[in-house]
Amino acid sequence: MAKVLMKGNEAIGAAAIKAGCKHFFGYPITPQNEVPEYMSKELPKVGGVFVQAESEVAAINMVYGAAGSGVRVMTSSSSPGIALKQEGISYIAGAELPAVIVNIVRGGPGLGSIQPAQSDYNQSTRGGGDGDYKLLVYAPANVQEMVDLLQEAFDKADYYRNPVMVVGDGMIGQMMEPVEFKERPHVDLPAKDWAAVGTKGLRKPNVINSLFLQPEDLEEHNIRLTAKYQKMKDNEQRYEAYNMENAEIICVAYGTTARIVKNAIETLKEEGINVGLIRPITLWPFPEKAFEVLPETAKAFISVEMSMGQMIDDVKIVSNGRLPVDFYGRSGGMIPTPEGIIGKIREMIGGAK
Amino acid sequence: MEKKKQKSIHKTGECMLNDKRIKIIIGHYGSGKTEFSVNYCMKLADENVKVAIGDLDIVNPYFRSRERASMLESKGIKVISSSLGHNFSLALPAVSAAIVGPIQDPEYQVILDVGGNSIGARVLARFFNDITDQGYDMLCVVNTNRPETMDVEGIVYHVRSIENETGLKVTGLINNTHLLRDTTVETVLEAQKIIIEASEKLSIPIKYISTLEKVAEQLPEGLEGEIFPLKLYMRDAWM
Questions:
Q1: Which residue of B has its CA nearest to A8?
Q2: A259 in reach of chain B (CB within 8 A)
Q3: Chain B contacts of A175, Cβ < 8 Å?
């Protein structure tokens, strides 16, 4: 299919429907409103259901219910709205159900602003819900990657029976870019024999539940969930390594910020300064594998973020004391500029002499 | 080649001065209305006329012409947006009444950059009497790479629904078909065929073909519509 020009939020809707999403429950919030708008218009055409819920809490519980019946279901929101959904997300993870949750991040804390941010790194990777659960978290850097990862998110959710979150800052949601809906390889997925779709008197009821009152049972459940998360850690890490050869400084940045960093890298290259980039495509699992072998020239890491520095800890964990970890970020809806990043890197290089 | 380019830009200026004093820029959202509007203002400001732009976009939270207010104002262009100021970052449908000033002032060339689709265009109803009293051109920006305006039916639907919503008539089409920096001569020419057909069906002429400067230079002569070379003012280098 030829390329079309789509706004990130529209492309999210189109990709979800392409992936077989039949149900969407949500509540409006800027800067992701075009997602529910698109779904409300397009889902009925494919025999699906769109419901504008009375709140984010209601919406995520509708997702929980629909997921329990085995259908492909999605919700989307933006930062404070995702915060409201955390309880339901924990229930869905606890009940081991597949669902896709999109977060088009805006500045926080609290109501914050409607401008782009990446200050939901902790909310996405550490979770705001209770218990020992994890989400698979994708962070696309452009609209095409958003389309590709969002479709894959539905397969991964089904495969692991776990909620998958797709995180883009407001810019990814609002930006127009050419996209192509590529043919996707067929993925063999297990039958949804756990779904609560009626027994017809032929079998015991399937129970959708996250309540395990016996401590022994709950612990066993947690051990099983943790084994599943370990499998995700082993198999799902994804990243892009860029200009790493002879890099003196290694930037770690994801989403829109990674694009700005690339722009800075090109300018610095002209000055003879070699800077590399590790771009996590999965925020959880964090791509540890990208950090296993580092160029011998590397003197330091710098985490570049549209937040006050939420990813630094993960970079420190994977650096494991090998290199110092510095930080550059803008927040509150301010977008880092290539010039700002270049200035910070020059300062680091100067300091390293 | 260089000579031809000069001539084409000069003609664009002349052609713009032949447009009615009030120019309303409408279209399907994402077709490039704001980029066209901002470019139009910047070119008009070179013609030594008083220029005002009214950013009437109450639909989008990002990529509105007010984001480039300081650049426009440095060229002497009057920028009017929300009654709460250009930088007021909120999805509030607050349009400043100050836009009525330049609409009524015969010395001003006015560009109204309207939000997408018929929903975005609804805001024009507030200014209906002033606009119709003064006379206007309403130009519909078309990008056939947008899923809803890929064919003649889609374009006709958008033109008609905006006309119905506003009670105003579209007086010209703009072929602004692009794929951002991937735009080629073929992108524009393929779209031109579809837009010519829509133009005949609607009995509305193609006024401009707006495209990146590097593509504009390579377009053949004799196309319907003035070639309007665009700079990408709304997108930072990293986008």
A1: B30
A2: yes
A3: 62-63, 239
Alpha-carbon distance of A249 to A156, in angstroms, equals 34
Task: Give the distance, in angstroms, between the CA of residue A63 and the centroid of all CA atoms in the same chain.
Answer: 18
Q: Which pair of structure tokens corresponds to residue B18?
A: 């032949």
Q: What is the pLDDT of residues B138-183, one digit of tens each?
A: 999 999 999 999 999 999 999 999 999 999 999 999 999 999 999 9
User: Top-level CATH class of B2-230?
Assistant: alpha beta
Mean pLDDT calculated for residue range A325-336: 97
What does CATH list as the number for A4-235? 3.40.50.970
The second-level CATH assignment, the architecture, of A240-352 is 3-Layer(aba) Sandwich (3.40)
Residue range A245-297, pLDDT digits in tens = 999 999 999 999 999 999 999 999 999 999 999 999 999 999 999 999 999 99
Q: Rounded CA gap, B81 and B58, in Å?
A: 10
Say what the pLDDT of residue A202 is.
94
Q: Which positions in chain A touch B147 (Cβ < 8 Å)?
A: 4, 6, 10, 14
Is residue A174 less than 8 Å (CB to CB) from chain B? yes
- Binary contact (B145, A5; C-beta < 8 A): yes
Contact criterion met (CB below 8 Å) for A173 and A8: yes
Alpha carbons A232 and A238: distance in angstroms, whole number: 11
Q: Which of B30, B89, B182 is closest, CB to CB, to A114?
A: B89
- Compute the count of residue pairs across chains A and B with CB atoms less than 8 Å apart: 62
